[in-house]
Fold each of these.
Amino acid sequence: MIIYKTEAEVELMKKAAMLVSETITEVAKILKPGITTLQIDSLCQQYVLDNKAIPSFKNYHGYPFAICASVNDVVVHGFPNNIPLKEGDIVTIDLGVILNGWHGDHAYTFILGEVSTEILQLVRVTKESLYKGIEKAIVNNRIGDISFAIQEHTEKKYGYGVVRELVGHGLGKNLHEDPQVPNYGKRGNGPKLRENIVLAIEPMINLGTKDVYTDKDGWTIRTKDGKPSVHFEHDVCVKKDRALILSDYSIIEAAEKANSNLNTNYYTN
Ligand code: MF3
Ligand code: CO
């Protein structure tokens, strides 16, 4: 059952999504080789608590941390750990919060220092695919239009692996609501989009095979071939002519560009 939001509820959800964006911006300011993902986890947890919100992933079906920190071949749900990040790593920071009862949930992939042009392209194309999906999140389209747009741009155009086992989702008073938002599918298929459906759209795109496996910890999802994977996620509200993006990459990107330890060479502007 899809739960439609009122205008007032969308406003509250924007505040939750923006707190996630602001927290990830704090990460963008301090990211550098040598820092551990456990340090990033405590920074995020503290920032969220200081802003009168609750990290939503912690204890969600037993998940033990505030963030997911997914490095290189980890697709999603990576546990923060005490291994220092190093030059050439790519790391996705995925964070969820509950603010005044409403969820924000989004993610951003950072590049530390020099990486191959192959990886730069994977990051660029995955981010582009998120926006291609968002363009389809308008009234009278269907979920499959979003899915198809993401798959076309990544799998069809670049031969990347589109993860099948994990999908985007509705978002509201719950972290995961209907409908599911796969990153693959057919145009014109699936539930019809109506005004004020809020979706977390989240392409998870692999450089190589689409196949993944779960680590012994029961959470960490990795690519089967060990090649890198990228994940970007935005919270969006379906509208008539153009989706309203509730989260905000512009503040993250500004901090990313200002941090000389981070690689933004894939940016076109
Ligand atoms: N962004 C992810 C999702 O929407 C993160 C969930 S991690 C979990 O599913 F620990 F909360 F499950
Ligand atoms: Co999500």
Note: The chain has one domain: 7-258.
Amino acid sequence: MTTDVMTRPAVLILLGPPGAGKGTQARMLEESFGLVQLSTGDLLRAAVAAGTEAGKAAKSVMESGGLVSDEIVIAILRDRLAEPDCAKGVILDGFPRTAVQAEALDALLSETGQKINAAISLEVDDDAMVTRVAGRYTCAGCGEGYHDTFKQPQKAGTCDKCGSTEMKRRADDNAETVASRLAAYHEQTAPLITYYGDKGVLQKIDAMGQIDEVANGLAAIVKTAAP
Ligand code: AMP
């Protein structure tokens, strides 16, 4: 079967430093547009928890706030992209993070005749990021994200989505590690904004506003870029 341009699954990339809201927004887009969120951070945390070889190699790097090797991350992403649900279209959250990963993604997509519909840069102030990251937590049951200040569940300690009362915080969401993660973003990931600008797929969005305002802006971009 040949795949024409209109039926190719959408590929959207969310770029932005830690705390910009990539995960929150990706989950909202997943619900609104029936796309699949692919978070390399989540995939790596699952590998660490499962004690795989990749997980063992990634653990200390993640704890320090550095970037896991391109080789490991690309292999994990490649395997996940090959799963059948990705045929619905994907939102890449936290990948690519280096020029090598961006080129590997281009090569992977060209194998299946896919293209990047949009790389959306969530534009935020660095100063606000430490507060944002330090206050966040997720439901252990369904992964819904919350924040001490910006997004509390309706009933304290109980997930609005699934009712679980077990919440968890990431080990790397502390001020010291966030500083390293921000530095890694500026050194290795921010140059991808130019990379995707040159390809003509870059979109920028002000991500300092309320979660719903940013979501509305993103939805408008997605409707145009991946109709
Ligand atoms: P995140 O959940 O996206 O904030 O990622 C958490 C951590 O996982 C990062 O600080 C990195 O150590 C690692 N990580 C996630 N995605 C990547 C990637 N694309 N390349 C390298 N390291 C990654």
Note: The chain has nine helices and eight strands.
